[in-house]
């Protein structure tokens, strides 16, 4: 058999992909042993795979950003529902307390209650680092939930601000990727 590229030379190897005969010089060009056209095709395929892998990585990153944005929106909606219920209850069932409230007080109270779910999420995350037994008395769990709810009010405002800034930056990244 003769070399595919050099018909005057004897073939000492064959292309691993297509089986063309290759002389010693042609056989040493690529590892594994391939002809010029198969080597170019393999290189093109590798580049295409790397490009596809990079596009998949970018898509996963973008999907994660969109997911964190939608999580912020869901938590905000939960906060609005909680705030609406608390304001409604306060207005209708605690008239003696609400007589002195101005519009600014109502808005402040509404914003405070909107932030509670953000504080609850932060505390739940932090709680994952502290082992709490699933067994306990009813009083333990009532006190535990009460303390967590109170702390959620305190932690909620900074947690909301942090998530809001993070969501705005995330939206900028999404726009940049698109």
For this entry, give a set of tags.
mainly alpha; two-stranded antiparallel ribbon; 178 residues; 2 strands
Q: Topology of this structure?
A:
Layout: E1 13-14, E2 21-22, H1 24-27, H2 36-93, H3 95-98, H4 103-127, H5 138-177
Helix pairs in contact: 2-4, 2-5, 4-5
Task: Describe the structure concisely.
The protein has about 180 residues and is mainly α.
Task: Summarize the structure in words.
The chain is built from 5 helices and 2 strands. The protein is mainly alpha-helical and 178 residues long. The protein has a domain at 57-177. The longest helix is centred in the middle third of the chain and has 58 residues, at 36-93. The protein starts with 12 loop residues before the first strand and ends with a helix.
Rg (C-alpha, Å): 33 Å
Helix percentage range: over 70%
Average pLDDT confidence is: 85
- What class do helices, strands and sheet pairing give? mainly alpha
Strand content: under 5%
Number of strands: 2
- Give the low-pLDDT segments: none
| First-last Cα distance | 55 Å
Largest β sheet strand count, sense and barrel closure: 2 strands, antiparallel
Question: How are helices and strands ordered from N to C?
Answer: EEHHHHH
Strand order of the largest sheet: 1-2
Tell me the number of helical segments per DSSP (H or I, 4 or more residues long): 5
User: Could you say which overall geometry the principal axes of the C-alpha atoms support?
Assistant: elongated
